[in-house]
Amino acid sequence: MITPRLFLITFLALTTGISAQEASLKWESSIAGFEARDAKSPPEENTILFVGSSSIRMWDLNTSWPESPTVNNGFGGSTLADSIHYFDRLFTPYAPAAVVLYAGDNDINKGLSPEEVAKDFKTLASLISDQFPETPVIYIAIKPSEARWKLWPEMKQANDLVASLCQKNAHWHFADIAAPMLKGREGAPQSRWFIEDGLHLSRYGYEEWTGIVKLKIREAGVKD
Which of 106, 161, 166, 211 could join 174 in a cystine, given CB atoms 3.0 to 4.6 angstroms apart? Predict the structure, then answer.
């Protein structure tokens, strides 16, 4: 019998060219950590579920959403395909009011094309929609950064493709954080958006992102 878990492992192996064993082991400690956390302190219903790479993992959600229940399932370095692979452990244990995703940054950095990123987003968003039919999915655009500025053309193209997909589904929402980061600029965003590595967000960056994401959550009809 093919279980959802086995299907997802097989899907990832076929579409990325990595073995099921590699996919299963790479992030096992991170995923197990989420499960241990939830066993110790079960998440509330109608939580805002955040999933994605290091921009999610490093986000102090208690500061940004002090009056709302949140879950941070961010695992640094991950891709959309990783979230697809671990879907049944990252998403299905929850009853979220909204799902916020940030992934695609590492995908492009690892050589995926914009079209592949958009395809993986569509797969993940469809899995979420099947599991939670009325739950809004907020996709945070791939950010422009100092460290990966040379990849911005491909990242922008991926953002445009995902934004177009979001327009076709009433439950999918595109949070464009790139436009304000590049406002008035002809090059990479100002350094105030980042910590010293030029890649990860500073406190200022997270404050700005919080305002943008909160607006999208409200537009989706969710009280944050």
Answer: 166
